[in-house]
Amino acid sequence: MTTRTDAGQKPIADHVDRTPILEVRDLEVHLRAPGGRRTVRAVDGASLALHAGEITALVGESGSGKTTIARVLSLVYKPTGGSLLYDGKPVKYGHRAERAYYSNVQLIFQDPFASLNALKKVSYILGRALRIHRIASGPRAVRAKVLELLGLVNLTPGESFVDRYPTDMSGGQRQRIAIARSLAMNPRVLLADEPTSMLDASIRIGVLNLLDRLRREHQLAVLYITHDIASARYLADRVNVMFGGKIVEYGDAEDVIANPKHPYTRQLISAAPDPARYKGSGHEIITDISDASPIDNTVEYMGCRFAARCPVALPKCTTQQPPYFVSGTRATACWRAEDDPSFSETTPQSTATHSGAGDEATPPSQKEHVSHDSTE
Predict the structure, then answer these.
(1) Which of 66, 107, 287, 331 has its CA 20 to 30 A from that of 26?
(2) How does DSSP classify residue 306?
(3) Does the pLDDT value for residue 350 go beyond 60?
């Protein structure tokens, strides 16, 4: 049986000659709350790896830490603990190093209505990226490259779009322009932060299919961030489920969603619309809604962060933090997996080292440890 300790990575045996393009290990992002007296543990010990030609989904509810990880990967935030690696080497900061990094790692923003300048034509929006990164120079070369990018995202004929403003386009067309801008630098990694959440349901599938085609044709590593686990199943090769700043389950997308091991994953799947589940269908429908307070990320829980909302929690769930239990390419951080003979316990994740990310993100000198049944 293969075991591992880092969330979001396949077993080492499966990656002998495959170094992840982009990776975070034991990532911590602790931010000072307003007033500076409390610390928000936005991400607390998460690991994730992105490989060429593979789409990795990061799924979870709002506030779980998904976008914080994307901001670390896009160098908006610096980690307060753990490491960020590109091609197996620590990422360097500074103007020159960051410019080189952005040539290979690009972010697709969630809202195409806000991320594009409504006062500029498509030719300027795409052409500016080409000029800044010196992909093309001269009016003719830039325009030719812009038309090529429009063709990549299925906005054809390009001449019909190149001189239009974003306000003249639909939401789906705007998001395709945003994707084309990200492709202008010929990146190796795309970070897609809920790229379809602002779009009508009827056009979401087109954007998802576009991302799938681009990763296959260009061998892109794609991080797909979403709260919709159904779209993750449709698009992704691997799924990482996140709750309260931690990755609680990960593995191949079909395995995780068809046979979830963590109660939070099961609740996410149950919340997704499914025509097969209706009253009288015989399929299980979770209707119980917890009245527990939302998780407080300003404290560090002694046990599982989901315990207060978990319908199958054990007594030790509130007092002992579960390790990862691993089976092949799957893992879950749930004490219930201890009774499953196909899963074996790993050693606890290593403690991330402090990286000195600045005063505003400095961890507190003394951590708070509380259980779910304690009060502040």
Answers:
(1) 107
(2) T
(3) no
